[in-house]
Amino acid sequence: MKLKIKKDEILKGLQRIQGVVDKKNTMPILSNMLLVADSKGVEIVATDLEIGLRGRYAAEVEKTGAVTVSAKKMFEIVRELPEENVQIRVEDGNWVKIVSGRSQFKLVGLPKEEYPSMPDVAEEGMITIAGDALRDMIKKTLYAAGENDARYVLNGLFVHLTPGKGGLNIRMVGTDGHRLSMIDRTVETKHKEESVIVPKKAMMELRRLLEEDESLEGFQIGFGKNHALFRRGDLVMVSKLIDGNYPNYQQVLPAQSTKKITVSKDLLAHAVKRVSILSKEKTNAVKIQLEKNALLLSTNNPEVGEANEELEIAYAGDSLSIGFNSRYLMDVLMAMDGANITLELNDSLSPCLIKEEGNEAYKCVVMPMRV
Predict the structure, then answer these.
(1) What is the CATH number of the domain that holds 299?
(2) Range of the domain at 68
(3) Is the pTM of this model over 0.85?
(4) Pairwise CA distance, residues 333 & 258, whole Å
(5) Which of 4, 160, 183, 207 is the most buried (most CB within 10 A)?
(6) Helix (H, G, I), strand (E, B) or coil at 302
(7) How many CB atoms lie within 10 A of CB 86?
(8) Are residues 93 and 197 located together in one domain of the fold?
(9) Distance between CA 363 and CA 338 in Å, rounded?
(10) What are the tens digits of pLDDT across the range 29-75?
(11) Which of 214, 249, 284 is the last residue of a domain?
């Protein structure tokens, strides 16, 4: 294998795979990437057996071939190279030689046959969705998904496709049992009803891909029996799906609320952040109290001190005192885009429903805690 490639071109591919390659060294080969040079350019492939990412990049290929080499070391070397052009060739014994200007490096490689192949996922029935819309859906739900939860189905995002008169509704849901986030988007296409659970890591990597380019039109998603497929042009990501039944998240959403307030998102976020400075580190507990035309925030930590803040709101209902984990509240507020948000409450033991004012497509729930 022998090729010449622009530094920026190969660096883009190497950056993309850094989050995919296995860092636990369960299998040494998984810390490598697969480099394949053919007449169309060069392919960079990485997998941790759960997620696979494959991209094609423009290169002048003098001699075709393939090799696997350390993804981290290759990235660190290329990032620091002084020249715009990078030459890569494979020598006897699978040594990978990298040359740029007067800089030369040799990395130990392994034959391509030892590298695990990405699973084949049928591309029939793929759904096309605008990249910015998909990115927004992930951003607004991913924070609520579980992190190494014993209920393994919570360690991913639930994606439910429902055909309707206006097109196909795509619903994305994340929950860890303490908070829930749900968003709906409609795309003009026909598709069967389908639901899957995509692992959190896969969604994190997909979000990174979507964030690197503002012009991600025509992003395609599709689901097989055991895998999800995400594609745009020559960039393909495959992920295993989480097998299991997602909990009935609908029952967490309050059917009706006796108390409803509207408040500036930024004012509330800054107030919560200030008051939480003195909250207990283990619980992050902040108390919210509703009074006539006032929202009071407070925390009391005998070891450090206490904090109080008051926001002016339009409210004429009964008084209510309720406690929340301030970190959970901040996660919701950071994910919301609207200038104003609504909080819908019932009593001190019932969940709080939070929405962007005038937007019924995005709903968040935060469970209360004792303070």
Answers:
(1) 3.10.150.10
(2) 2-114
(3) yes
(4) 22
(5) 183
(6) coil
(7) 23
(8) no
(9) 12
(10) 999 999 999 999 999 999 999 999 999 999 999 999 999 999 999 99
(11) 249
